[in-house]
Amino acid sequence: MSSKPAPSIPAPSIVGQGGPDLDLSPVELRAIIEQALLTIGPDARVLAIISDKTRDDNTDILFPFAAEILAARNVAQFDALVAQGTHMPMTETEKRSKIGLPEGSTAPGRIYDHQWNRPEELVTIGELSAEQVTALTGGLLTAAVKVNLNRLLGPGIYDTVLVFGGTVPHEVAGFAGGAKYFFPGVAGPDLTHATHWLGALASIENVIGRVETPTRHMIEAAADFVPARIISLNSVVTRDDNNRLRTHALFAGDVRQAFRRAAEVSRQVHIKYTGRKYKRVVALLDEHYDELWVGGKASYKLGGIIEAGGELIIYAPHLRMISETHGELIEKYGYAPLDRVREMVALSTELQANLAVAAHLAHVSYAGHLDENGHVVSRFRITMASALDEATCARVNLGFMDYHQFRREDYDSDPNTLVVERAGRDLYLEG
User: Fold this and answer.
1) Could you name the CATH architecture of 274-429?
2) Angle 214-223/130-137 helices, nearest 10 degrees?
3) CB–CB of 292/364 below 8 Å?
4) Domain 15-271: which CATH class?
5) Model confidence over 219-238: pLDDT tens digits?
6) Is residue 171 over pLDDT 80?
7) Is a pLDDT exceeding 90 seen at residue 272?
8) Of the candidates 246, 92, 63, which has an alpha carbon nearest to the alpha carbon of residue 165?
């Protein structure tokens, strides 16, 4: 297998608009989509990469526009692949909702699940050499990594790939969006584990909310191997108090540059500066996160404003498990600061084979510091007021609170406490 990418296909120019104060209408969004798809002609085979239910974006608005435009162009095929990473598949109802398909209507093509851990569902399209990995990651990783991903992205299957997705601060890549929908979105285990562990080694405080990160550089280098032309559709969205979705930006085109245009708007929309740290932060967890594998975003996005020795309370009656996919491993090892997780990885072949889980253990713990005895401990404690039972919380080194006993009014008036609505969506920094 060659370590050089396939010959590049000229990328489409960047189209779109965005800004923190914009509220793009469906008419404006459709016009951007139409312009972005101008180079797709009759008989083309097109694959859409879409996010799963854990991501709140505007795919249900954009996908029908794309389907209508491509049907008018007489494309031969228009299917979708869910970039679910290692998450469990969505139901058929959830998939239809994700792409904005009304009840009783027919999808333009098939909607495929991604099965990251089934070798027969994957294809290797290249390799990042040890020299490349070392250069891309600043020496944090030094071993070669195979570029394997869903077999639908192998040579000769689709001509064009459309990447639909929101751009928000992210703990592993810095910002979600762009090439991240390939790796780890529809990747095999090699890059899934490598990118997560790389994000942990770089440290969450040096990654989240930053565009140019070692992980971003690595996943973009891997995306160069995708043989089809890529048109990346990068949105920036928020929801108001009435749950109305607002689109602040949509940039389409080259997978690198369209992402960066969107990330600049996301930085202004999704990062909140508090000017101080708090002794306690109460996270009213966003309803999209029903397990701690994704609900850990409350810690990722709020840890930067919690004082050493402080507390994060995650209020989430709807959060019912640690992880449907990785729960057994997480409960075996428990959340811990990065230095402690690195020690566990060094001693455990099981964690060495599951570096994405190891990264999650460190990310949720967020950061460590030395206690009075010189031991590395978590910088702040995390208390779960959720559907998790006390024994489960204890196994993973988290505190427990009966969510029935939680009263928001106990915290609202405390000047040393910040209560955050829809926690996990926006990144909070001291400034």
Assistant:
1) Alpha-Beta Complex (3.90)
2) 140
3) yes
4) alpha beta
5) 999 999 999 999 999 999 99
6) yes
7) yes
8) 63
